[in-house]
Amino acid sequence: MNNHLKTDTLTIKEINKMAIPLIFNSVIGMLIGLIDTAMIGRISLDAFGAVGLISTTINSITGVLGAIAIAFNIAGAKNKGEGNTKGLIDNFLSGILTSIIIGLSIWFILLGFGNRLLQMIFGLEDVILQESISYMNLFGITICLNMILFMFSSLFKIINTTKYLFIGNITATITNVILNYILIFGKLGFEPMGVRGAGIASVISLVLNIVIYISIIYIKKLLIVNDILSIDKMIKNGIILLKNSLALLGQEILESTILVICINAILSRIGVLELSIYTLLSSIVSIVLMPMYSYASTALTLVSKNYSQKQYGRMLLIPKYSLKLAMIFCISLSAILIIFKVNVVTLITNDYKLISYSLQYFIIALCSCLFSIPNNIYKYSLQGIGDDKWVLLNAAVINVIGIGFIWFLSIALEMGIYGVYIGITFNYIILSFSNNYRFNHRIVLYSEKSI
């Protein structure tokens, strides 16, 4: 009994040691991001809808490409466990180069065909189309910058120095708020730039974040690079990372990007008000879910590490306690936001119509997001044991059905935003149950084979 209690306590401590700095990093960054959204919300409804549409879509694409960083996380954790520092450095630099090539390529595509894509996919026109193009042309480069930051984030998790993520992120996000205020509203002699100012501020802040991380690694000597691979070898390593991330990329495309794009497409056809409501509430929901992503990424790293050591009993505990800890944080944040919901919404926008309608959907939006927590914890845990192909197939089947269900409720039955949230909730419930069952079943099988 005492041994089990000791194991549980040590597991929780290990999880929190890695996850809590990530939580502070994410929550503070998101809170400051909420202030950014509030600034845009005071320009116009079209500007608010445009920035929300572009940022959620591009961030979804970035999230998908973050699968490359996840593949590095898994490979790097194995390098770290084996004491192969050179392999860790080689994989990291190869991942950085791959991120730059892919990120810039997508940005150039957006610059060339963004106008047509916005009209075809989202049906945008007039003012909101022009605002969206203006923001997208600048914000598109953040795909490349965020992919690089994902690689640094994975590196700091692997070498267990997540506190430096907090230092870099808090500095960059405060800078972002200051620049947004100056550039959006035209302070200190600058012309008011509106959504263009928001895009410029985001790019400068992300570049600053990268510079801070590079400086920390150099000053603290966290990695000492003696022999850098040639460009050819880095490209070859990058191709290997890409191959290892294909199933992960597929998962994110199905579960994040396609779902987000389809929901935005549905809402944009219902109306600009509905799109703005969903954008506003998504900003608030993002705050609630920050602890989830921190604990999910922690579960991935620790499950991968214990899997290589065949610590199957401990592997069962990691997602179990990660889920409990994530739920405690997320439910607590939800309760606080519900109590102060009027203050939170009015902080983001001063549009009376948008405020009144958003408050109607506030609670269902928060309740819906909570069902995504077990799905993500166990999805990341399955990735840690190399079961990413099954996760891809499972996500493909469930999300295709889920998209159809969301369309049926929101459009065919004319339930609007309520239909969207109900459909999303059912989607997450099914994904959560299936991922949970699969993980526990696989670990039991591995344990029996090792006896």
TrEMBL record:
Domain of life where this protein originates: Bacteria
GO cellular component terms, A-Z: plasma membrane
TM ranges: 20-41, 47-72, 92-113, 133-152, 164-186, 198-219, 240-267, 279-304, 325-348, 354-378, 390-409, 415-433
InterPro entries: MATE_fam, MATE_MdtK
Coiled-coil blocks: none
Keywords linked to the UniProt accession: Membrane, Transmembrane, Transmembrane helix, Transport
One Pfam short name: MatE
GO MF annotations, alphabetized: antiporter activity; xenobiotic transmembrane transporter activity
Protein name from the UniProt record: Probable multidrug resistance protein NorM
Species of the source: Vallitalea guaymasensis
